[in-house]
Amino acid sequence: MIESLSRRAARGSEQAAQLEGLRKMLLAMVQDVRVVLVKLADHVQTLRFVVKCDDVQVRHDMARLALDIFAPLANRLGVWQLKWELEDLALRILEPETYRRIARLLDEKRGDRERYIDQVISRLRGELAGAGIKAEVSGRPKHIYSIYHKMRRKGVDFDALYDVRAVRVLVAM
Question: What is residue 7's predicted lDDT score, i.e. its pLDDT?
Answer without folding.
Answer: 47
